[in-house]
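DM from R.C. (forwarded with permission)

"hey, sorry to bug you on a friday — could you get me a structure for this? deadline for the figure draft is monday and I only need the backbone to look sensible"
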Amino acid sequence: MARVRILWDPKGFELDSLGRKRLLRITDGDTPYISLSIRMLSIDTPEVHYPGNQDPSRHDERFEELARWLHEGKAPVDDGLASHLYPRLATGRAGTLQKEQGKRATQEFQRLLDEKLEKPGGRRRPIFVRAADEPFDHYGRLLAYIAPSYTRQELDALAYKDRATFNLLMVESGWAAPFPIYPSLPKYRDLVLLQQVAEDAFENEKGAWSDPNTLAGYEFRMCYRLWEVTRKLVRGRRLSSQEKYGWVERYCVDMTTLEVYEPQRYYIVKPCNRIFIWPEDVTEAVGRLNLLPAT
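My reply, with the result:
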């Protein structure tokens, strides 16, 4: 009989929930180095694959079908959101556009890496990583901000904006939409900077914002879930309220007015001003951030 009397069953990730990772090397008996994917915080780029490894261009007809259902009032969508989504889905190439923009975003990220990580003399600088308080998402990716790792002397000579993370630089280019989610928000100074560069990119139609039919990555994923739900309804399936409306869950805050909007009213807030909140965090966020119900 074991003598241990401590009962300890912590919540959180199981060991295998981070998936299979490539072992790079070990440095001693208890320090292995593994490859680990990073999900960059507070930004969202267009999808190159979704869902899973599917080609977004395969959804062109599905999204055109969803546009028709929106027009016919068959989708469980408020009229305002339906009007926002309809022209973007009715083009017949919403998935193709998403994939094209996803490739352009990938190219821009690679360009920034090549530019910012090259040291004088051609050597490559390492990356600085700052993880979130909740470090992993449900795919096992590390949630983090990443930036060039500058020396102390370099930092002293750089203005604050010139030390920008790659997260911020992608938003500045217009190839990433700002996507801050409470409680993993940047500190105030960085949130102000994020809003400023996002507004500049949006208003001046940089990157993906140059196309009026652009769907941010989170909108594209949302529309795919909405298509799945609406297809079931059109086929006569009876769905619970959670199944019927669970395709959009996050509340949206306008960071410039502190107003909180219901999930289906996020479109009222300009993309550069949006902060998202999961339903279970709304009560806490309202108190901590002094939020107000939208009128």
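R.C.: lifesaver. The mean pLDDT is 93.
me: no worries. DSSP finds nine helices and twelve strands in the chain.
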